[in-house]
Design a protein that fits this description.
- Helix content is 43%, strand content 16%.
- The protein contains 8 helices and 7 strands.
- A 7-stranded parallel sheet has the order 3-2-1-4-5-6-7, with helices on both faces.
- Helix 4 packs parallel to helix 6.
Length: 244
């Protein structure tokens, strides 16, 4: 079964993506610093008919200089890499004028530099195979803006530009590159939002609700499938109509 790396695959949206991809027949390699209880439980579940497996590889995605060895280790242990889902990210909020420089640097390192460098080494392995799929998880704040998220939205905007240009670079090799831009989703990343804020977001959406993690996971699964073989360089928005 085709191997797909999912970064930040131990919890939240990444865990949901891993679960959906396994059900679709992919063997998932979840990369995160630590294995969560929810990931352990999912790995211990017997896959459904036609389902794949989930493996866990511990790695700190802030260790940029070790990413080449990470990809070599994954390829040696699990075989060719068909897909990469750059999902891991941190959502540190703060007004730019008062935000600590260390927090700005950390956001850029994890949300922008890390997926770029990881993709670089994964793409090298894909070049020797028969195509591949790359999906970058962006955010609707990359094009709508949100007070207190200027640095975060900068990092997510960079992934959209990265997606478009890399799709041009890799198209002749049969490798597609796309992005998914979730709206506000019920995960750990939105845990700081109060009930009143969540209700306001839902009322502002065309469908009067927030998107679910499964919605984003289904979009990722579609972009990794053969049904999306002629879709590349695009960003799919999944936000229940928040930006409609």
């Amino acid at each position: 079964m085709p191997n797909v790396i999912v970064t930040g695959g131990s919890r939240g949206l990444g865990l949901g993506i891993a679960k959906t991809l396994r059900a679709a027949g992919h063997d998932v390699i979840a990369v995160a610093r630590r294995k969560s209880e929810h990931l352990t439980a999912l790995m211990n579940e017997a896959p459904s008919n036609g389902g794949g497996c989930i493996h866990f590889v511990p790695f700190d995605l802030g260790c940029i200089g070790e990413m080449s060895d990470l990809v070599k280790q994954i390829r040696k242990t699990y075989g060719p890499i068909f897909g990469l889902v750059n999902n891991a990210g941190i959502g540190t909020s703060g007004v730019l004028a008062t935000m600590r420089d260390a927090d700005i640097e950390s956001l850029i390192r994890i949300n922008t530099l890390s997926p770029l460098v990881l993709t670089k080494y994964v793409v090298r392995t894909m070049m020797t195979g028969q195509g591949g799929r790359i999906v970058n998880i962006s955010s609707i704040v990359s094009f709508t803006g949100f007070s207190g998220l200027s640095v975060y939205s900068t990092t997510k905007s960079s992934l959209v530009g990265f997606t478009r240009s890399l799709a041009r670079e890799l198209g002749t090799l049969g490798i597609t590159v796309n992005a998914v831009a979730p709206g506000f989703v019920d995960t750990d990343m939105t845990g700081d939002l109060g009930e009143q804020q969540r209700d306001k977001i839902a009322r502002r959406s065309a469908l009067r609700r927030m998107a679910e993690p499964e919605d984003i996971a289904n979009a990722v699964e579609f972009l990794l499938s053969d049904r999306a073989k002629n879709i590349t360089g695009t960003t799919v928005t999944v936000d229940a109509g928040n930006t409609a």
